[in-house]
Design a protein that fits this description.
EC 1.8.4.12, Metal Binding Protein, Guanine Nucleotide Exchange Factor, Chain A, Mss4-like_sf, alpha+beta, single chain
């Protein structure tokens, strides 16, 4: 280190792409390096770590000036980037290499980490035990260059990955609930907010996509997670956008809805938990399903704009047709 007053902190919080930017933007942070630590193999590769055979965790090592940004503040920032109750990984990423760990570099850091963990456990913020481990720091091996500062090198993919993995939605739900509501009201139209946040329904035949036929994909208006493709859209004459199926079943979840004296299956987005609409068994497709979705819950990305919007990987869907 260039300055004897600088210190190091090492945190594992799942995918290291998502653990750099939150610290990198803070004053007093000298550097944030993505890498591997905690295992038994020297100089491991990304593929070796992902194979779960090295014992390493994906982690970030932070060089910081404690006079400007104290270690306790780093801990506070760290907790707000992860799901500390998940013992099996983080969000989409499963396995030991994606588990959460605080690696302490001194007895002072160990005590601060334990106190911070106990305070979080006793705060009542989470209804499950805090699973994050606290372990002594070991040799840290920087990851391959293309992993460093990934949020700067590939911002579109980085942002889409954060949204799609569920990390952003989790952070908003558990740490920024009030701010999130204010931001959503500013971001969304009154109808979009009513539909996605209050389980509302927009008027039939008087909504944006009920008769929309352009090629592209439909994403969650709140989080941007991909939901439906124009290839699966059909005219059901119901006055709302209708689809045979979602692009990926893991992008949605069902919930029994007994409101208004009816029994229906509500459809919600997996990560943002937005109300989308309902699914019925009167569709013409192979599965016989009709996903009746509110236009107000969707944003449409035309085929020609998929790349620039960060959804370039879905262009292959159109090449196959």
């Amino acid at each position: 280190m260039d300055n004897n007053n600088y210190q190091r902190a090492t945190f594992a919080g799942g995918c290291f792409w998502c653990m750099v930017k939150p610290f990198d933007e803070e004053p007093g942070i000298i550097s944030v390096v993505s890498g591997y630590t905690g295992g038994n193999k020297a100089n491991p590769t990304y593929e070796e770590v992902c194979s779960e055979t090295t014992g390493h965790y994906e982690a970030v090592q932070i060089t910081f000036n404690p006079a400007v940004y104290p270690y306790e503040k780093l801990l506070h920032t760290y907790w707000q980037q992860i799901d500390p109750t998940d013992p099996g990984g983080q969000f989409f990423d499963r396995g030991q290499s994606y588990q959460t760990v605080i690696f302490y570099h001194s007895e002072e850091q160990k005590q601060a980490a334990e106190a911070s963990k106990n305070a979080l456990q006793n705060s009542g913020r989470f209804d499950k035990p805090i699973a994050t481990q606290i372990l002594p720091a070991q040799e840290f091996y920087p990851a391959e260059e293309y992993h460093q500062d990934y949020h700067k090198k590939n911002p579109s993919h980085y942002n889409r990955y954060r949204h799609g993995s569920g990390r952003d939605a989790f952070i908003e739900r558990h740490w920024n609930r009030v701010t999130s509501e204010q931001q959503l009201r500013e971001k969304l139209t009154p109808m979009q907010y009513k539909v996605t946040q209050e389980n509302g329904t927009e008027p039939a035949f008087r909504n944006e996509f009920w008769d929309h036929k352009e090629e592209g994909i439909y994403v969650d208006i709140v989080s941007g997670e991909p939901l439906f493709s124009s290839f699966d859209k059909f005219d059901s004459s119901c006055g709302w956008p209708s689809f045979h199926k979602p692009m990926d079943m893991s992008s949605i979840k069902g919930k029994m809805d007994t409101s208004h004296g009816m029994v229906r299956m509500e459809v919600r987005s997996q990560n943002a938990d937005s109300h989308l609409g309902h699914v019925f068994d009167d569709g013409p497709g192979p599965e016989g399903l009709r996903y009746c979705i509110n236009s107000a819950a969707l944003r449409f990305i035309p085929k020609a704009e998929l790349e620039q919007e960060g959804y370039g990987e879905y262009l292959q869907l159109f090449d196959q047709k």
